[in-house]
Design a protein that fits this description.
Chain lengths: 385, 265
């Protein structure tokens, strides 16, 4: 996964499709990130926080009972054990340090499930920055606990009532805020989406997941890389970070989308949220609503680098439906004592479905468990009862 | 492609230059296409009330440049069944008597295809198109097809545009140069941003193409202040707000006439 260059291109995808008002801000951010990323002092401060504050490296856990049941060797990269309960913290700490370095004292963020919002609120509290999180009104409703968590951390949560009132609309609203406040504000995007340089920045900040996992897998497997590497994909940040560590190996890379938000399977190339990628849209180019049990995957688009990896065949992007996902959620809890978030339960659901089929028996399979399931327990309880 | 008759009115830029060079200040009201059953009557009424040209928004599901008023208008138009094709087809028979420009987001253009969108607009007698989320670096494909079909691609200049970009934007913009008056989304504001005058002055120093300022121009008084520097104004949310409240063609025309009176006939 290479540097996308000045235009931010991943093959036909990516780019920077923003109103003129935001072009200088994106250029400033690009220059700011390039300089920070090359600065050993910045890197060492970030690495220090990832270690002492986040608890990295997160472990890779080999599943005993579930592996036996599926006839494969199942390894989990445990981002659920990172501070705040998901991989989102890796990205926000980097972006918050970058904002501070660029002299921007206000962070805005969008959030779907609330994990990125919680992470952004956490980083803002840690560095003493102001934080405003935009969240679709539907998601505010179904992820109430995360809303309260963000407020506990000192952030303000703004419910978004326009459009489908989910993640897509939260991004729209954050972009509208940013156009008006760009001098003082950093827009801390939570996934590998948006105008260049965001997909690149977020992937680089998340590649710690894949880089760590590659080393850990080699140790566990006694040398070789895993046969298959799997992660869930909404915008695609945990998958991008994971794939970054394995793209130059022979591992089969699999990103699993929610069946109701499968932009890579059912989407058409388009330009939304500043990027050329694949989007669920109608014949006129109006964007359609995604629907999924997991708020974090409720996005009608996908990061441009995933669209690219899919187009060249380096990664494949199947989907899992809500029923399979719930079954996988229960299965991991019951066999391994780990309650996953509904988002990575999509990755597990695909593994459960394909084990012994397109996943040959005996294969080693790494799944990035991008977050823990606490936030989803109430929702699942309702569905069970 | 287009017929000679389509172009007989002349392009938007020719019309605006003639008016400006004759000593008039320019006024382009914005109306969301498909908003209300009488939206074509609104066009004719505001043309009669003193509009030099009219900007018609083709609604998009995710209008990130727009504030609450245009968002609501776009959502209402879409839910009443308006589509890009239905709006463009209606404009072909609008008979407004002034040049028309459409404003839409790039995904709508991309989905139709550059060439098909340009030729459809031209065939409907539309003079120009504004695509605010298509920046200079990505402009070529669309601008070439638009020019080939006789559609003028209007570019936006922002208060944050550095000098070299401003120069390039002014040089490539056709129809007019759209100065963004304030950092932010479209919408009414009860104060005129200093940036509205600054962006107008910077563009005027750079180009002879007519310079109009839009975004945040809400009242006749603000319009008058802006045209002290700019060649004219684009007024959107303030007008659409009135349409959402049921002003109808008459109310819209009355508001446009007020602005016209404020900036001089």
């Amino acid at each position: 996964m290479r540097d996308p260059g000045r235009g931010g291109r991943y093959g036909d995808f990516g780019g920077r499709f923003v109103p003129e008002s935001l072009v200088p801000a994106c250029q400033e951010l690009e220059a700011g990130f390039t300089s920070a990323w090359a600065d050993p002092a910045f890197r060492s401060r970030l690495d220090g926080l990832l270690c002492d504050y986040v608890g990295r490296p997160t472990p890779v856990t080999e599943c005993g009972r579930l592996s036996q049941r599926l006839g494969i060797r199942l390894l989990l990269k445990r981002e659920d054990l990172a501070h705040t309960g998901s991989h989102k913290i890796n990205n926000v700490l980097g972006q918050a340090l970058l904002a501070e370095r660029m002299g921007k004292r206000r962070l805005i963020a969008e959030t779907g499930a609330g994990q990125h919002g919680v992470a952004a609120a956490t980083a803002a509290a840690l560095l003493g920055l102001e934080c405003l999180v935009y969240m679709g009104a539907v998601d505010v409703e179904r992820q109430g606990l995360n809303v309260f968590r963000m407020e506990l951390l000192g952030a303000k949560v703004q419910a978004v009532h326009s459009g489908s009132r989910t993640l897509k609309d939260a991004i729209n609203e954050a972009l509208r805020d940013w156009v008006a406040t760009v001098e003082t504000t950093h827009y801390c995007i939570g996934s590998v989406v948006g105008p260049h340089p965001y997909p690149h920045i977020v992937r680089e900040l998340q590649r710690v997941v894949g880089d760590e996992a590659r080393e850990q897998c080699r140790e566990l497997l006694g040398g070789p890389d895993p046969d298959i590497v799997v992660a869930c994909v909404g915008g695609g940040s945990n998958a991008a970070g994971t794939f970054a560590g394995f793209v130059d190996t022979s591992a089969r890379l699999v990103g699993v989308e929610a069946a109701g938000g499968a932009a890579l399977s059912n989407g058409i190339p388009g330009v939304v949220h500043g990027m050329r990628s694949r989007f669920l849209q109608d014949e006129d180019g109006q964007i359609l609503e995604a629907t999924s049990i997991s708020a974090g995957l409720d996005y009608p688009g996908v990061g441009p680098e995933h669209a690219f990896l899919g187009s060249i065949g380096r990664a494949e992007y199947p989907s899992a439906d809500d029923t399979e996902v719930l079954a996988a959620f229960h299965l991991l809890a019951e066999t391994e004592g780990i309650i996953p978030a509904l988002e990575p339960a999509h990755a597990l659901a695909w593994v459960v479905r394909e084990a012994g089929k397109s996943i040959p028996s005996g294969s080693s399979v790494l799944v990035t468990l991008s977050g823990r399931g606490d936030k989803d327990v109430a929702l699942v309880q309702e569905l069970v009862q | 492609m287009t017929t000679d008759a389509t172009f007989a009115r002349g392009t938007l830029e020719t019309a605006l230059r003639q008016r400006r060079d004759a000593g008039h200040k320019l006024l382009i009201p914005y109306v969301t296409g498909g908003l209300g059953r009488d939206w074509l009557e609104v066009l004719r009424a505001i043309a009669d009330a003193g509009a030099d040209a009219i900007e018609i928004g083709i609604p998009f599901s995710d209008p990130v440049m727009d504030g609450p008023v245009i968002q609501q208008a776009s959502a209402e138009a879409l839910s009443s069944g308006a589509t890009p094709s239905s709006i463009i087809a209606a404009l072909a028979g609008a008979d407004a008597g002034v040049p028309l420009a459409v404003m839409t987001y790039y995904n709508i253009v991309l989905r139709a295809g550059h060439r098909r969108m340009a030729s459809t607009l031209a065939a409907a007698g539309i003079s120009a198109a504004i695509v605010p989320d298509l920046p200079l670096e990505e402009l070529d494909g669309w601008a070439e097809e638009a020019a080939a079909a006789g559609i003028e691609a209007v570019l936006l200049v922002a208060p944050t545009s550095p000098p070299d970009r401003l120069k390039a934007l002014c040089a490539r913009s056709r129809g007019f140069v759209y100065g963004v008056g304030v950092m932010g989304v479209t919408g009414e504001r009860d104060w005129l941003a200093a940036s509205a005058l600054t962006v107008a002055r910077r563009c005027k120093e750079e180009t002879d193409t007519p310079v109009l300022v839009g975004v945040g121009i809400s009242s006749p008084e603000q319009a008058r202040e802006v045209v002290a520097v700019a060649d004219g104004v684009v007024v959107g949310s303030a007008l659409v707000h009135r349409l959402l409240q049921g002003a109808g063609p008459q109310g819209a025309a009355a508001f446009v006439a007020e602005i016209r009176a404020a900036i001089g006939v």
